[in-house]
Design brief:
about 120 residues, mainly alpha, two-stranded antiparallel ribbon, 6 helices, magnesium, metal-binding, ATP binding, hydrolase activity, hydrolase
Length: about 120
């Protein structure tokens, strides 16, 4: 049998390759301005009119995917299971709970960033 040669440029799961991938990949994601966020929230129809204004201001410069994620978190309610009523229009998201979810999401993103940064500098 002959020898096989493998292409070493194929990504592997070694820590070294992960470190290189983290440093070399940058995603430029367009963020939403207040007016854009307001339009999305109005279409979702999950907040009261006052809630749309407040939430849109808080969501300034946030990517669309994160907007959907925090809305979904808030729609679940404080005790879970209220998303069906929210999305059917029978109830609206409590704006205080929405701000708690937004704060938690931002805190998680920052701690994840620092964990990744720590892993990169360790290798």
């Amino acid at each position: 049998m002959g020898r096989r040669e493998y292409d070493v440029s194929v990504p592997c799961l070694s820590a070294f390759m992960i470190e290189c991938d983290i440093r070399e990949i940058t995603y430029n994601v367009r963020t939403l301005k207040i007016e854009d966020a307001k339009k999305v929230l109005q279409q979702l129809n999950v907040f009261s009119n006052d809630g749309v204004e407040s939430a849109a201001e808080a969501l300034n410069d946030i990517p669309l995917k994160k907007l959907y994620m925090v809305v979904e978190m808030a729609a679940q309610g404080e005790h879970g299971g209220s998303a069906e009523a929210i999305y059917s229009g029978k109830a609206k998201i409590n704006i205080s709970h929405f701000f708690e979810c937004l704060q938690n999401m931002l805190r998680i993103n920052i701690s994840t960033y620092f964990r990744i940064y720590y892993l990169v500098i360790m290798f």
